[in-house]
Amino acid sequence: MKLSNKGRYGVRAIFDIAFHNEGRATQIKEIAERQAIPPRFLEQIFQDLKRAGLVASRRGPRGGYQLAKAPAEIRLGDIVRALEGPIAVSAPKDDASAQEGDATSRQVTEEAFAEVSKRIEACFDDVTIEDLCERGEALGYRRRPPSRYVYVI
Predict the structure, then answer these.
(1) How many other CB atoms are found less than 10 A from the CB of residue 75?
(2) Phi-psi region of 135 (alpha: psi -120 to 50; beta: other; left: phi over 0)
(3) pTM of the predicted model as reported, rounded to 2 decimal places
(4) How far is Cα 99 from Cα 107, in angstroms, rounded to an integer?
(5) What CA–CA distance (Å, rounded) separates 13 from 32?
(6) Per residue in 32-61, pLDDT tens?
(7) Cα distances (angstroms) measured from residue 38 to each of 9, 44, 57, 153
(8) Residue 21 falls within a domain, yes or no?
(9) What CATH number did the domain enclosing 66 receive?
(10) Which domain holds residue 59?
(11) Count of alpha carbons within 13 Å of 92, Cβ hemisphere only?
(12) Residue 106: which pLDDT band, with cuts at 50, 70 and 90?
């Protein structure tokens, strides 16, 4: 299993909303600037996260994306599955290469890979966005207030 940039950026974006904006609506440009993620890529990521029910969107001048659940209810596994698909190290059942070779060794190894996949998935599911926020505070990172006000002189 290899986590792509899409999965990593998705976790960082949701963490950003929870940490810097306490889960409230945050504009993509703010997240993109703080996290150094291309805004267009973030838009695609947020569409997948919205379909998965992890974020909601709000239109208007105070709009943006906000968490659809409390940070304690959003697990890293939820984000990874929404963006990457199932968390697995074994080959899919319809993989042609899986049909070749000794049936006994294939069964034994696939069972081992399935067990490893479950353990990896459990590790992802053991960490919540709230855990990441607590870790950020413990490390001394400062929460940045959202830039909601525009002053015109």
Answers:
(1) 19
(2) alpha
(3) 0.82
(4) 11
(5) 8
(6) 999 999 999 999 999 999 999 999 998 888
(7) 10, 10, 19, 31
(8) yes
(9) 1.10.10.10
(10) 5-86+128-138
(11) 5
(12) confident
Residue 92 belongs to some domain of the structure: no
Structurally, the chain folds into a number of domains equal to 1
d(CA 81, CA 114): 16
Rounded Cα distance between 24 and 92, Å, is 38
SS3 category, 63: coil
Count of all residues that appear for the chain in the document: 153
Domain membership of residue 13 (yes or no) is yes
The answer on pLDDT for 97 being more than 70 is no
Angstrom distance (rounded) from CA 102 to CA 105: 6
Report if residue 153 sits inside a domain: no
Residue 112 CB partners (closer than 8 Å, separation 6+)? none
Backbone angles phi, psi at 58, to 5 degrees: -135, 130
How do residues 135-151 score in pLDDT, each as one tens digit?
999 998 877 665 555 45
Amino acid, res. 112: A
In this prediction, residue 100 has a pLDDT band, given cuts at 50, 70 and 90, of low
First CA to last CA across the chain, in angstroms?
53
